[in-house]
Automatic annotation (TrEMBL):
Family matches, as InterPro entries: ATPase_NBD, Gcp-like_dom, KAE1/TsaD
Keyword annotations of the record: Acyltransferase, Metal-binding, Transferase, tRNA processing
Domain of life from the UniProt record: Eukaryota
EC number: 2.3.1.234
UniProt cross-references to Pfam families, sorted A to Z: TsaD
One Gene Ontology biological process: mitochondrial tRNA threonylcarbamoyladenosine modification
Enzyme kind, highest EC tier: transferase
Name assigned to this protein: N(6)-L-threonylcarbamoyladenine synthase
């Protein structure tokens, strides 16, 4: 859930945004694009025993946790539910502009447990999918690779556990096996695929003696993460090249292309991204409404 205020002719409006997906639900309160509260309820402990997200367990957990998240967000923002003027929610993946300095058109690389997409956003309500996965998403592949390596989910989930394992320094290891880099699939094509990287981890484990030594876990985790990152960077570069060849009216090859990254805390499940989109849409609606009244 997210709450955001917007002012129009001196009146302050409060909107409510809700997020419930996979293994968490979220609530956030903002005012004039400033975050007043940000509540995220994780449910990793409920799913770890199943090895992945269990749909019916997730639904029941959302039903229990969402009212608590809403109540906490309202309390931290010092408002009541009666102060809320509107409710917003998302349906499917979206191209969200968390950084207001990003101007249309812009290219979005959306990475999550459910989606991996390259989107060309031309306005607040219009976007074109340039590339998506042929099999599984980046996040799901990370989760499955972590499960194959027997990593504990911890408080942040299996994907984060794999990333943390990759950060172990070589000085802490007596021996690190040399693993050949995993092949990056769909080379030269504007398409994504991550199932083969997950299979590479499974194949490496099957060739080793059990239990798999820590050094081999680290080496295979690094090989997987490097291959996934290389693919994302390659596809992002390829999409920029293709867009330049199409000579978009709004794009000049002489202009400098800037990169915008959301703060790290907004790169996992949260409702701030929904609030940001709602605020932009609301502002554009107010501009249209006010200009219409002046006619």
């Amino acid at each position: 859930m997210a709450l955001m205020t917007t002012e129009d002719n001196g009146r302050q409006y409060w909107e409510t945004e809700l997020l419930s997906r996979c293994d968490s639900c979220a609530a956030v309160v903002t005012s004039s694009r400033q975050i007043l509260s940000n509540v995220v309820v994780k449910q990793h402990d409920l799913h770890e025993g199943f090895g992945s997200i269990h749909p019916s367990v997730a639904i029941e957990a959302h039903q229990r946790n969402m009212p608590c998240a809403v109540r906490m967000a309202l309390e931290q923002a010092h408002i009541s539910i009666h102060d809320v003027d509107g409710i917003a929610f998302t349906r499917g993946p979206a191209s969200t502009r968390l950084d207001s300095s990003a101007q249309f058109p812009f290219l979005t690389l959306l990475i999550s447990g459910g989606h991996t997409l390259l989107l060309l956003a031309s306005s607040l309500t219009s976007s074109q999918i340039l590339a998506t996965t042929a099999d599984t998403s980046t996040g799901r592949a990370f989760d499955k690779a972590a499960r194959a390596l027997g990593l504990s989910w911890g408080t942040r989930g299996p994907g984060a556990a794999l990333e943390e394992l990759c950060r172990v320094t070589n000085d802490e290891l007596e021996f690190l096996p040399d693993i050949q880099p995993f092949t990056v699939p769909t080379s030269g094509k504007l398409a994504l695929s991550f199932a083969s990287l997950q299979s590479s981890v499974d194949r490496y484990i099957s060739l080793m003696e059990e239990p798999l030594p820590s050094s081999h876990k680290i080496a295979s985790a690094r090989a997987f993460q490097t291959a996934a990152a290389r693919q994302l960077c390659a596809k992002l570069t390829l999409s920029l090249q293709k867009l330049e060849l199409k000579a978009l009216d709004e794009y000049s090859s002489d202009e400098r292309i800037s990169l915008h990254f959301p703060p790290l805390e907004f790169c996992t499940d949260n409702a701030v991204m929904i609030a940001s989109q709602t605020s932009s849409l609301w502002s554009s609606m107010m501009v249209f409404h006010n200009s219409d009244k002046e006619k």
